[in-house]
Amino acid sequence: MTSQLFTKTLNEHYKKELPFVVYSMPSVLKVKALLQKSEEVYCAENYKESGFVFAPFHIEEKTIIIPNDKSHLIETEDLVFVSRGGKERKIGIQSNTEKGSYLSLVEKTINKIKEGVYKKVVISRKETVSLKEKNVIKLFLRLLKTYEKAFVYCFYHPKIGTWLGATPETFMCIEGNRFKTMSLAGTRKISDNKTWNKKEKKEQQLVTNFIVNNLNELTKDVKVSEIETTKAGDLLHLKTTLSGIINFDEISLKTLCDKLHPTPAVCGLPKEDSRTFVLKNEGYNREYYTGFLGELNYKHVKSRNTNTRNVENNAFSSIKNTSNLFVNLRCMQVKDHQAIIYVGGGITIDSVAEKEWEETVNKSQTMKKILY
C-alpha cells in the first residue's frame, strides 16, 4: 500500500472513532496498522489469542487486545514522514512544587531502602503539556521519524484512550519455542562524557538477576550476554540480552509474562513489596505506562532457503507462532487536547534525589521533542 493511501485509510478510520494501532518494529521500514471493525473492547484472557495486546502495569487489570480476526491489517514501506516544520520549541519542566514532591518521594524511598525493606524501587511521575498538534497520527509520524531504532506506536480505543510511545525496551520476543528478552537499566545523556557509575551498574545487575532467577524456574536453557551500552534517542542505557528455549506445550506464554512482569526495571525488588509501595506512594494510576504491548501469536512463515525461486526447498518452510512484546516506556497519553507524559527512574541505596529528578527530565524529552 502506498504511503498516501495508508495515511488516508488510517485517518478515515480514526474519524469514525474505531479502535486501531499503528506501529513499526525497531530499525524496520515497514509500518503496520491494525484497524478494528467495531468499538467493542476485547481482552486477552489466556494469551492464546492472536492480535495486538496492550497490557497495564497492574497485572490484576485486564489486558486489552485488538484481535486479528476482528480487524483489518494494512502495511506500507514507503511512508512519507510529516515535516515538523517551524522552530523547535523548548518546553519547560514541572513547577518547583511538583519537583519538590518528587524529590521528597525519592528521599523517602532511599530511606526505606537503607532500612533494608527494598533493594530497588522505580518511582515515576507524570507531566501534562498542552498540545499544539491535535492529530495523533501526525504525532506518530513525528515519533517514527525521530526514533527509528525504537518500537514506535500509536494506540487508540474510544473506550480505553489514546497512547503513543517510542520505547527502547523489549519485554519478550518469541519465535516457536525460542525466546529473547533484555535487562535494561541505567540512564545518562549521550552528551555526558562519563563512565557508568556504581549505582547505574548495580541497578542494571539487579534487573538481570531477577530475570535470570525467574527464567530458571521455567527453563534451564538461559543464555546471558555481556553488558553493553545501547543508544535510545539522546540517552544511553546498560543492556544485557537473555535468550533460551521454553517448551510452550508445558508452560504457557501467559505464565512466562506473569512471571516477569513487572520487572525491576519498571517496578522494583522484591517485586510484590515494591509494587505495593508504588501503588501506595506515587499518588496516581500509571494505567498502561510500564505495562507491555505488541504483537501476540502472529503466524510467521520461515523457509529453509532464502531463494524464493527454489520451489523444492521452499516446500519445507515452517509456520511458527511469533510474539514481539515491548515495555511501554517513553510514552504519553493524549487526553482533552493535552499530552500526559510518564517518566520514572530506578531508586537504589546509592541514589541521589536531585540526579534522579534530572534523569526523569531527560527522559521526558523523548516525547516533548515531537510535540511542537
Protein described:
The protein is of the alpha+beta class. The protein has a single domain (3-368), classed as Anthranilate synthase (4-Layer Sandwich). It is 27% helix and 34% strand. It has helices at residues 3-15, 96-114, 136-146, 198-216, 253-260, 271-281, 311-314, 353-368; strands at residues 20-24, 31-36, 51-55, 64-67, 71-76, 120-130, 151-157, 161-167, 170-175, 178-189, 222-224, 228-232, 235-245, 268-269, 292-302, 318-327, 331-335, 338-347. Strand 12 (228-232) and strand 13 (235-245) form a beta hairpin. Helix 2 (96-114) packs across helix 8 (353-368). The model is unreliable at 82-91 (pLDDT under 50).
Give the topology:
Layout: H1 3-15, E1 20-24, E2 31-36, E3 51-55, E4 64-67, E5 71-76, H2 96-114, E6 120-130, H3 136-146, E7 151-157, E8 161-167, E9 170-175, E10 178-189, H4 198-216, E11 222-224, E12 228-232, E13 235-245, H5 253-260, E14 268-269, H6 271-281, E15 292-302, H7 311-314, E16 318-327, E17 331-335, E18 338-347, H8 353-368
Helix pairs in contact: 2-8
